[in-house]
Design goal:
Blueprint: H1 5-27, H2 29-32, H3 54-68, H4 73-92, H5 102-120, H6 126-153, H7 156-159
Length: 164
């Protein structure tokens, strides 16, 4: 069976997004991991606003980033799950630009503190970690992601068109 142009284009978009996520996470590993983390790559979680290919793109990017960085297995599993929930939520809310940032912020703020506690033995209070992770997500997804959305909006039809 010969793949059609749409499926190849979709896979290429997802792969590029995953690659960018990995490069950003690994390049800034010092601030991408830990109890107070600021993953610049999380700004890409707004891309489901532009294309459904961003959902597997950011999820695979997160999974591979965690594996490459040597994250503990619960972090690989539940960190990736938090990104999946956030990306699917962003895609579901894509009709309202201002709501797109909320799912990744919430999913990470609610899930990652438990990962930090049970995978890495952080002794901080779960609620405290929800605040610190949430602040990092607000900055990465809300601020950087918002700037990214604004910058890409102008080129939306060029960058995120679907193959005919």
């Amino acid at each position: 069976m010969k793949p059609n142009k749409k499926s190849v284009y979709y896979l290429a978009q997802a792969a590029v997004i995953a690659a960018i996520y990995i490069v950003l996470t690994v390049s800034f590993a010092a601030i991408s991991f830990g109890p107070v983390q600021f993953r610049i790559s999380e700004a890409l979680c707004v891309l489901p606003y532009f294309t459904p290919a961003a959902v597997p793109g950011v999820v695979i990017g997160c999974l591979l980033s965690n594996l490459l960085a040597g994250a503990m297995l619960p972090d690989v599993i539940f960190g990736t799950l938090a990104t999946l929930i956030g990306a699917v939520g962003s895609y579901a809310l894509r009709k309202n630009r201002w709501m797109v940032c909320i799912p990744p912020i919430l999913s990470n703020a609610l899930i990652i503190p438990f990962v930090l506690r049970y995978a890495y033995g952080s002794e901080d209070l779960i609620f405290y970690m929800m605040i610190t992770v949430g602040i990092g997500e607000i900055l990465a997804v809300g601020v950087l992601g918002g700037i990214l959305m604004g910058a890409l909006e102008r080129y939306r039809s060029l960058l995120f068109r679907t193959a005919a």
